[in-house]
């Protein structure tokens, strides 16, 4: 009997890093996971220590192999998926970061946005890279870092410093680091830097100029599924056959390979991606244009993305800051004790409103309070906030895309909440389907890596692995839905007005 | 009945002292109050902390009555929490067997479904999360009656409704089936709630070993049973395996 073969996924997320092995049927056979520290040096600043993350990778990869009893030679390929936009800059000679990683949630680069806008209009930026000029993306973060220190800028220009998103940092270290590590990224990650031209899928000289990022520090951009090198450390000899940003990975893991396929992930935030096929669709309704994936030798598939900044984190806020519930799951138990929201609406514009509004100054509001309103009504309003925000993003997407979405595939931690899933089906008036095992991010990286390694012959095989675990069908009457949507929109206007 | 267990008596004495005291107490004070040597009192307190009946302040090391004791008798595991914590495992069971999978807990005289995963294949399927299943006529229900004293009490003196020709309506027959379930660690129900339907289920235990739920699969008799009409051994193995994994995830069998 020959030893079984597996494909591995390394998922470097915002709070933790995990490594999983999958078998040919697409089943997860082992998992190792560790959390890393969050650093908050000032209000609005969020950092990770890249060395800590690399140390964790050095632990979880061998652990996942040991857990499955597999040797490196039994792993046909490794796919990396990662938190997007988070920015690492390090010294190519010592391998040491020059600064902690600046995390996507970090808002410090708001101080450089006016300077960027002075060199290139927001409309011009969006036309070139598909992204609105906000603090999320990597380009302004690099500019902030290099602007903060003339010596760093000088070293960057001399070619002594390297830039990368998390994928790039990890591939460089996995393939040898200072001893010849590959300095590469993939198109999905590059599409979130605000430095890549969506048309050429290469670094855009005008964008680099506006962000003042020296070309010398940038990695080479490769297709999502292609050869990224072979590991040297912490285990030797595994081929790196895919790199893909986390939300694109979950679309891939949901078998969203083709035009018209969509998924929405409900975790800390909410992320809706719609595959728009081989041409980028420019949103007229506040969505982001991004790359879904690219296979070696094929043209790239693009996507429209709408993100909800605050989804599960509103539930966390209810639990940790207000102390109204003991666990996230209790929100559903509480909400189910009342038949409706009692007239109460929560708009969680904690850091402004993102897609489709893009109102950075909006602030959160709770409206409709009367003495009748109880904790249970508020819990309902919290869940409804996520469902209505999803509706707004879907409306924008339907307006931009050729055909309206007929069903929504979901994943993420919040899909454990049946009431929320039913609300989403009701508010969107389409069925909501959850696939088996919600680990779609790692699965997507494994799918991509397995295709790259020839473990699976084609995407059709993977499509057959997709299996429905649950489905929620709309039951709300059109009248009720429209009235409630009206009231939600009024609440949103108040949130925008409050910040103005 | 004059024989008593000494360590239970001592633990009860410690709890009585602690609940009479408004301030957290140091180990020395407590040991003196109940007349025990410090190491003995310490061992008992550590066990009570593990059970959630006593809390220890991390900074001072002092003890006070735990929140677990305050809620004793009033809280049971929230079904939505049960779903959140076990979702991936129940999915895995459905993925491995191709059948629909459920996890259910005892509530108000029934086995209430906390999480339901569809069987493989196309066609419309209804979610039945929140539905109450009969205790005596389903595999999930039998496991709860066999292992959960509350569920067992609830069937005493209640009529056993006939749902199909095969439903167990005779009390001594039910008791034999429950004893079997306790021996083997799993239960089945073949054509007992609906003629064409079979189910296999196993218990889920919490940290203290208490059975808090039952997990299992259901499907056509023809797929779940062998030629003799008995549950297929490979499927039983999958169900029992997942029930153990979930119990481990909930803390069962973990060294204190
Ligand atoms: N039953 C529930 N009802 C509502 N919200 C829930 C429930 N269970 C979890 N959540 C919320 O879901 C979020 C966790 O989901 P998930 O684990 O997918 O988060 P994530 O941090 O975005 O993911 P990752 O760690 O993989 O990057 C938390 O914000 C939590 O409040």
TrEMBL record, chain A:
It is an enzyme of class 2 (transferase). SUPFAM superfamilies: Actin-like ATPase domain. Coiled coil: none annotated. Sn-glycerol 3-phosphate binds at residues 14, 84-85, 136, 246. Glycerol binds at residues 84-85, 136, 246-247. One of its GO terms (molecular function) is kinase activity. Keywords: ATP-binding, Glycerol metabolism, Kinase, Nucleotide-binding, Transferase. PROSITE patterns: FGGY_KINASES_2. PANTHER family: GLYCEROL KINASE, SUGAR KINASE. Key enzyme in the regulation of glycerol uptake and metabolism. Catalyzes the phosphorylation of glycerol to yield sn-glycerol 3-phosphate. This is Glycerol kinase.
TrEMBL record, chain B:
The keyword Transcription applies. PANTHER family: HELIX-TURN-HELIX TRANSCRIPTIONAL REGULATOR, ICLR FAMILY, HTH-TYPE TRANSCRIPTIONAL REPRESSOR ALLR. It comes from Nocardioides luteus. It holds the Pfam family IclR_C. It comes from the Bacteria. This is IclR family transcriptional regulator. Residues 5-67 form the HTH iclR-type domain. Keywords: DNA-binding, Transcription, Transcription regulation. Residues 68-252 form the IclR-ED domain.
């Amino acid at each position: 009997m020959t030893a079984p073969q597996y494909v591995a996924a390394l998922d470097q997320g915002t709070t933790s890093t995990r490594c999983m092995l999958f078998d040919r049927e697409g089943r997860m056979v082992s998992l190792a996971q560790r959390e890393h520290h969050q650093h908050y040096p000032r209000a609005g600043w969020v950092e990770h220590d890249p060395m800590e993350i690399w140390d964790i990778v050095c632990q979880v990869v061998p652990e996942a192999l040991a857990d499955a009893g597999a040797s490196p030679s039994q792993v046909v390929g490794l796919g990396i998926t990662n938190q997007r936009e988070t920015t690492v800059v390090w010294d190519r000679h010592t391998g040491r970061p020059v600064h902690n990683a600046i995390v996507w949630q970090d808002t410090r680069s708001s101080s450089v946005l006016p300077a960027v806008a002075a060199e290139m209009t927001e409309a011009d930026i969006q036309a070139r890279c598909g992204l609105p000029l906000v603090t999320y993306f990597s380009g302004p973060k690099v500019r902030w870092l290099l602007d903060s220190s003339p010596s760093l800028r000088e070293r960057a220009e001399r070619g002594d410093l390297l830039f990368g998103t998390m994928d790039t940092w990890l591939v460089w270290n996995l393939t040898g680091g200072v001893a010849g590590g590959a300095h590469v990224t993939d198109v999905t990650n590059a599409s979130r830097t605000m430095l890549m031209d969506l048309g050429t899928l290469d670094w855009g000289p005008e964008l680099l100029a506006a962000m003042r990022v020296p070309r010398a520090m940038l990695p080479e951009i490769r297709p999502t599924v292609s050869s990224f090198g072979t590991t040297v450390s912490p285990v030797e000899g595994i081929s790196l056959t895919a790199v893909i940003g986390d939300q694109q990975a979950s679309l891939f893991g949901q078998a969203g390979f083709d035009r018209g396929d969509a998924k929405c992930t409900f975790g800390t935030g909410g992320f809706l991606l719609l595959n728009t096929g081989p041409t980028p669709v420019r949103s007229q309704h506040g969505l982001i244009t991004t790359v879904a994936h690219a296979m070696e030798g094929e043209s790239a598939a693009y996507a429209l993305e709408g993100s909800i900044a605050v989804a599960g984190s509103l539930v966390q806020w209810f639990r940790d800051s207000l102390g109204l519930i003991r666990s996230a799951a209790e929100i559903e138990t509480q909400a189910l004790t009342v038949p409706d929201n009692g007239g109460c609406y929560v708009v969680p514009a904690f850091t402004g409103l993102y897609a489709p509004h893009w109102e950075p100054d909006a602030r959160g509001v709770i409206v409709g309070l009367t003495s009748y309103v109880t904790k249970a009504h508020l819990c309902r309003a919290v869940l409804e906030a996520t469902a209505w925000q999803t509706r707004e993003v879907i409306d924008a997407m339907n307006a931009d895309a050729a055909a309206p979405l007929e069903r929504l595939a979901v994943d993420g931690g919040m899909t454990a909440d049946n009431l929320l899933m039913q609300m989403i089906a009701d508010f969107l008036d389409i069925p909501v389907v959850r696939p088996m095992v919600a680990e779609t991010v790692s699965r997507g990286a494994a799918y991509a890596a397995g295709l790259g390694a020839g473990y699976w012959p084609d995407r059709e095989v993977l499509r057959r692995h997709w299996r429905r675990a649950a489905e929620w069908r709309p039951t709300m009457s059109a009248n009720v839905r429209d009235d409630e949507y009206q009231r939600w929109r009024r609440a949103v206007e108040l949130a925008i007005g409050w910040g103005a | 009945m004059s024989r008593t267990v000494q360590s239970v008596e001592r633990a009860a004495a410690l709890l009585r002292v602690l609940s009479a005291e408004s301030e957290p107490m140091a180990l020395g004070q407590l040991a003196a109050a109940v007349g025990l040597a410090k190491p003995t009192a310490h061992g008992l307190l550590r066990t009570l902390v593990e059970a959630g009946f006593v809390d220890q302040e991390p900074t001072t090391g002092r003890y006070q009555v735990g929140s677990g004791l305050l809620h004793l008798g009033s809280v049971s595991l929230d079904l939505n929490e049960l779903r959140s914590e076990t979702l991936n495992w129940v999915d895995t069971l459905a993925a491995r067997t191709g059948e629909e999978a459920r996890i259910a807990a005892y509530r108000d005289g029934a086995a209430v479904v906390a999480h339901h995963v569809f069987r493989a294949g196309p066609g419309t399927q209804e979610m039945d999360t929140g539905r109450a299943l009969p205790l005596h006529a389903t595999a999930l229900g039998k496991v709860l009656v066999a292992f959960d004293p509350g569920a067992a009490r609830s069937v005493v003196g209640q009529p056993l409704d006939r749902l199909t020709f095969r439903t167990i309506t005779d009390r001594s027959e039910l008791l034999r089936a429950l004893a079997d379930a306790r021996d083997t660690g799993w239960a089945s129900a073949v054509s007992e709630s609906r003629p064409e339907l079979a189910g296999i289920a196993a218990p889920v235990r919490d940290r203290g070993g208490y059975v808090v739920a039952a997990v299992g699969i259901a499907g056509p008799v023809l797929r779940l049973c062998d030629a003799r009409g008995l549950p297929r051994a490979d499927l039983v193995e999958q169900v029992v395996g997942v029930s153990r994994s979930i119990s481990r995830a909930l803390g069962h069998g973990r060294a204190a």
